[in-house]
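[recover] target loaded
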């Protein structure tokens, strides 16, 4: 990837947080839902939001300049992508992921990046001990995981498999998508206790509560149920220290049946470490959660899996430019 040659490119990076905060503020005011299907004037939006027109005008202008909104003759309307992804009633609504997780949790955590680079530890997942924060985190994660879960369900062939262990499975978005696509599959979600109530509602809403069950605990401390046909670890290895990730891979090998598969879905940069930028930034953010978290690549992950006995590792794009899935098999004659 070519380097920046102009100071404006540097400025675009330095000022990037301003654009994200404008998006979050608009989401918190539900602006995009208010504009769904129809244009409105500044005064009309001021009445609906309760924000003074002089202040709201600055936010609307910023949103127009960023391409989130359009302004025609003093009437504001959603840009096409905003209508599709930022309107609360839209099937592909993604706003709560940005509003609840990125703005309220990831953004403040990154204020500690300098400390994390020095090796200081910030317990990001301590929020899981608080029921209200766990609920907000789960709601945001559910919104952000539905799309990748559907992609992964189409990517991997689980015909003939009957048991899946979803480690750190959160709200069950991946388990739900996989069970919907493969009717013979049953899943077990292993995650923190405070995640379970929200996850149970999601699973019940999908009418899969008879096929998806829960084990409460910490993946690094709680015994994993087995044997399993498939183990899924989504957004897990990037959130723990490299040494702990190796322990998780070893545990996956232990509970899998011979011939079973491990699916690791996570943020990964290319093996030459030139990008993509989005994946690189997510892996940078991961060290706030754990200063010893690894910078994952498909090659480094395939090597780790091979060191623990897995074979036939293959890498696949899930969210292009952000996440990949590495899928490997426990050899048919393997034990342990």
């Amino acid at each position: 990837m070519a380097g920046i040659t102009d100071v404006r490119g540097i400025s675009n990076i330095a000022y990037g947080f301003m654009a994200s905060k404008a998006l979050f503020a608009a989401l918190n005011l539900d602006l995009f839902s208010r504009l769904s299907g129809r244009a409105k004037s500044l005064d009309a939006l001021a009445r609906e939001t309760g924000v003074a027109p002089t202040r709201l005008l600055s936010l609307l202008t910023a949103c127009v300049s960023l391409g989130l909104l359009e302004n025609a003759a003093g009437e504001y309307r959603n840009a096409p992508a905003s209508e599709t992804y930022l309107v609360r009633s839209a099937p592909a609504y993604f706003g709560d992921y940005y509003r609840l997780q990125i703005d309220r949790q990831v953004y403040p955590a990154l204020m500690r990046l300098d400390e994390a680079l020095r090796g200081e530890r910030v317990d990001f997942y301590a929020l899981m001990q608080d029921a209200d924060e766990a609920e907000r985190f789960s709601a945001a994660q559910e919104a952000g995981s539905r799309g990748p879960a559907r992609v992964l369900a189409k990517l991997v062939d689980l015909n003939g498999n009957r048991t899946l262990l979803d480690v750190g499975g959160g709200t069950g978005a991946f388990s739900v998508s996989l069970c919907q696509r493969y009717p013979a599959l049953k899943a077990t979600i292993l995650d923190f206790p405070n995640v379970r109530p929200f996850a149970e509602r999601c699973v019940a809403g999908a009418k899969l509560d008879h096929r998806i069950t829960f084990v409460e605990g910490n993946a690094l401390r709680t015994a994993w149920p087995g044997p399993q046909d498939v183990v899924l670890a989504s957004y897990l290895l990037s959130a723990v220290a490299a040494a702990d990730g190796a322990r998780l891979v070893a545990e996956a090998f232990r509970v899998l049946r011979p011939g079973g598969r491990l699916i690791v879905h996570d943020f990964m940069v290319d093996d030459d470490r030139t990008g993509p930028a989005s994946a690189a930034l997510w892996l940078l953010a991961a060290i706030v959660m754990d200063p010893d978290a690894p910078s994952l690549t498909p090659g480094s992950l395939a090597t780790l899996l091979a060191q623990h006995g897995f074979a036939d590792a293959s890498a696949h794009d899930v969210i292009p430019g952000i996440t990949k899935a590495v899928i490997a098999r426990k050899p048919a004659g393997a034990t342990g």
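[recover] notes: The CA atoms of residues 101 and 137 lie 6 Å apart.
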